[in-house]
Specification:
76% helix, 15 helices, mainly alpha, globular, 2 domains, ABC transporter involved in vitamin B12 uptake, BtuC
């Protein structure tokens, strides 16, 4: 059977899967007695119809880009990293420790330091499952899942017993200094004379996330290390024969993956909350798995898929706020998107490949 070209695999197949998912979602909305067109219009208007909606959509998308890139890098090495949630959690701890450690003179100085802290803590949390897989044969799926729970428990202990300000009942760190406050996209737009929304959490981290997509693309497809990662992911036996060390590739790929997941904390901990909260990740690590699947583990596809899931999150909130459609229905729509772009991928791909072959 003729293989689809890369552009069709990354864009066309997920797009058709998405159309099918939304068609089934429309039937579900009809079945509960609501108008699918009204629901779609509410979601589009709430997520994309104003600068306020765009601000929240881009904020959510930023989180999903980082966690999906983390999943994608590990996937290219044949590893299924389900621990992005825990790695992002520990990345937040790294951000908080850096932000509170010194009297930073300006956010431009604090931001690179916070990024290093987030990446190091995320990479360190991914290192342990990686070395257990490489040296002891412990399955990476099991260990990364368990480390999510350990990370949550560790953060709970640190916030309650070590970082909570005196007299506070809230399990959260102290608020970061004003000098570490990251500029919002609103501020950047105002700097070029454009009035673009107010009171939205979207900040400069979105631009960093886009840059991360470019860096990951260069790493995976334009460097020797990326070639070794892809070779190992395709065939461990062939990689061994070529002199590629399975231990080194497993550890390096997982640490890069953990570092990317940890970088997500710059957006929600430093850019939005401006302090470390107990549940700051809010499931973005698991959503990243779906985003990576839908984006075919390619940075460009991940960028598009993250924007879609950002739209679903923000649009779903507006849908629950302004209509009688329950908030849980958005979870159903997300599940349908994941189902069609993941489990039922061949249902769309195989007919496309046959049509492409005839063409």
């Amino acid at each position: 059977m003729t293989r689809l070209p890369r552009w069709a695999d990354i864009v066309l197949t997920p797009l058709l899967s998405l159309v099918l998912a939304f068609a089934i979602s429309a039937l579900v909305i009809l079945a509960i007695g609501e108008n699918p067109w009204t629901a779609l219009r509410t979601m589009v208007t709430g997520a994309l119809g104003s600068s306020y909606g765009w601000g929240f959509t881009l904020y959510y998308a930023t989180n999903f880009i980082f966690t999906a890139l983390a999943v994608a890098v590990a996937s290219h090495a044949g590893l299924f990293n389900i621990g992005a949630e825990g790695q992002a959690t520990l990345g937040g701890l790294g951000v908080a420790l850096v932000a509170l450690a010194l009297p930073w003179p300006h956010w431009g100085v604090a931001l690179p330091a916070a990024m290093i802290g987030a990446a190091l803590f995320g990479a360190a949390w991914a290192f342990i499952p990686a070395i257990l897989q490489a040296k002891r044969g412990s399955h990476i799926v099991i260990t990364t899942i368990m480390f999510n729970f350990i990370a949550a428990a560790l953060l709970n202990y640190v916030l309650v017993n070590l970082m909570r300000p005196a007299g506070s009942m809230d399990p959260a760190s102290a608020r970061f200094p004003d000098s570490t406050r990251l500029p919002k996209l609103t501020d950047l737009a105002a700097g070029v004379g454009v009035e673009w929304g107010k009171n939205t959490p979207a900040n400069i981290t979105f631009l960093i996330a886009v840059a991360a997509c470019v860096v990951v693309w260069l790493l995976i497809w334009r460097t020797r290390l990326g070639y070794e990662i892809r070779s190992f992911g395709r065939s461990e036996r062939a990689a061994r024969y070529a002199g590629i060390s399975p231990v080194r590739i497993t550890v390096v790929a997982m640490m890069i993956s953990g570092a990317l997941a940890g970088l997500m904390a710059v957006n929600n901990v430093m850019g939005e909350a401006e302090r470390l909260l107990l549940n700051s990740v809010e499931g973005a690590g698991f959503i990243g798995i779906a985003v990576a699947l839908m984006g075919r583990n390619h940075p460009f596809g991940i960028l598009l898929a993250a924007l879609l899931f950002g739209f679903l999150y923000q649009g779903g909130g507006e849908l629950a706020l302004w209509t009688s459609i329950p908030r849980e229905l958005i979870t159903v729509i997300q599940a349908l998107v994941i189902l069609f772009t993941g489990s039922l991928d061949n249902m769309v791909r195989m007919p496309l490949e046959r049509l492409w072959g005839r063409r």
